[in-house]
Amino acid sequence: MSRYHIAILPGDGIGKDVMDAARIVLDTIALDAEYLPGDIGWECWKNEGNPLPDRTKQLLRETNCCLFGAITSKPNQDAQKELKPALQGKGIVYASPIVQLRQEFNLHTNIRPCKAYPGNPLNYRDDIDLVIFRENTEDLYTGVEFRPVPKPVFDALMTHKKMKAFATTPLDEMAISCRIITKKASQTIIRNAFQYAQQHKRKSVTLVEKPNVLRETSGLMLEEGRKIAAEYPSIPFKEVNVDAMCMWLVKNPQDYDILVSSNMFGDIISDLAAQLVGGLGFASSGNIGDSYAVFEPTHGSAPKYAGQYKVNPMAMLLTVKLMLEWLGEKKLAAHLEQAIAQVIKEGKVRTYDMGGTNTTLDVARAVASTFEKR
Ligand code: NAI
Ligand code: MG
Fold first, then answer.
1. DSSP track, 106-129
2. Which backbone phi and psi does 298 adopt, to 5 degrees?
3. Is 281 left (phi over 0), alpha (psi -120 to 50) or beta?
4. CATH code linked to domain 1-112+282-374
5. Which helix (H) or strand (E) holds 287?
6. pLDDT digits 0-9 by tens, 104-161
7. Cα separation values, 274 from 43, 67, 158, 161, 266, Å
8. How far apart are CA 216 and CA 21, in angstroms?
9. Hey, whose CA ends up nearest to atom 6 of ligand 1?
10. Which protein residue's CA is at the shortest distance from atom 16 of ligand 1?
11. Does residue 71's CB lie within 6 angstroms of at least one atom of ligand 1?
12. Which residue's CA is the closest to the ligand 1 atom numbered 17?
């Protein structure tokens, strides 16, 4: 009986390519685990009308954690057209499987490290080492949206004096998305950021919001942030507006360390931060709950490269490192990171994005053999 049971969801497009790379490395480092493959993504949507089948959710419930590749998702109209004929016209609505996973398994904390490894020609600067904590279950991602706006919703909103500006707009010429922020989720994400900062001896925590405009939602996060910061007096706490943060991340990224934010702003700043350290080919992430976690590179399925084994697997291999840390395999995680860093530094095996001609699997094999030699 293996120590761990890990669900493996390659998904669509390059999700499969980078999962093959992950398996090469996992087999080499000999983690005592059984890998249980599952279905997710566009094929499931087309054939079953559900990109996250119940059997996959069941698989996740029976495993310790999940390693996920990437999925394809398309706008509503395309999604409907691609449904198999027997499922069309039944009012089946597409919902992103990864957002569903985050919400259903309450994977409240999305952790996204962005670290410049020495020798990476794509680094914006060599001294960047950021970790972004993105709230993962609420904000504009709750899916509470209206178009057309139902009359009762409109009438209720009209009690707010700022709604007067829209009093004469026809209900079918308006769309509304709700930004829902709770005290509980704000406390959880901010506390996790501080705990991580303490455990990893990091130099500061920065809350990235927009409380000068979003006075209630960002305001609530800021209030909770200040209370929690007071419990960690040795860790400097900064408050930066999200627009200014984008500017500072380009100007002086080395001055920042742990960033914590809500779902949407966290998503935006993490793509910006990823590009500072080599782009999507280097961006790893974990969706972490109280007792379960789903690990995934932050990139999507990059359809134009699907099945070509061209893309950079480093994001996925760094994701495996995050998974090992979460499982408590700290030594294996550290050794894997050293092997990744060494391959980057030596610069002999590189995918196209780094100016090389090697394949996804060449890079995985280089990391695996470096790991073995160390
Ligand atoms: P994407 O991340 O798939 O690709 C954008 C571009 O980034 C690619 O064309 C490629 O040039 C580059 N890239 C991505 N991963 C790379 C890697 N590992 N190495 C080197 N270069 C890499 O984003 P895009 O094109 O916006 O979306 C494609 C599909 O993926 C869509 O259907 C989208 O909905 C989905 N998606 C899924 C995500 C997920 O599974 N969590 C996240 C983001 C997008
Ligand atoms: Mg994103």
1. T--EEEEEEE--TT-TTBS-TT-E
2. -80, -15
3. alpha
4. 3.40.718.10
5. strand 284-288
6. 999 999 999 999 999 999 999 999 999 999 999 999 998 899 999 999 999 999 999 9
7. 29, 20, 41, 40, 12
8. 45
9. 302
10. 281
11. yes
12. 281
Residue ranges of domains in the chain: 1-112+282-374, 124-141+179-276, 144-177
Pocket test for ligand 1, best of 12, 43, 299 (most atoms within 8 A of CB): 299
- Residue 139: what are its φ and ψ, rounded to 5°? 70, -145
Tokens of 372: 């073995």
- Amino acid, single-letter form, for residue 44: C
Give residue-wise pLDDT tens across range 220-272: 999 999 999 999 999 999 999 999 999 999 999 999 999 999 999 999 999 99
Residue 2 identity? S
Q: Which residue has the tokens 């209720």?
A: 156
Diameter of the chain measured on Cα atoms: 71
* In contact, 11 and 322? CB cutoff 8 Å: no
- The CATH topology of domain 124-141+179-276 is Rossmann fold (3.40.50)
CA distances (Å), 48 to each of 90, 311, 342, 373, in order?
12, 29, 44, 46
pTM of the model: 0.94
Distance CA 344, CA 143 (A): 40
Instruction: Report the separation in Å between the CA atom of 15 and the middle of ligand 1, taken as the mean of its atom positions.
Output: 9
- The two structure tokens encoding residue 266: 């966290």
Residue with tokens 């695996």: 368
Q: Cβ distance 258 to 273 under 8 Å?
A: no
Residue of the CA atom closest to atom 9 of ligand 1: 302
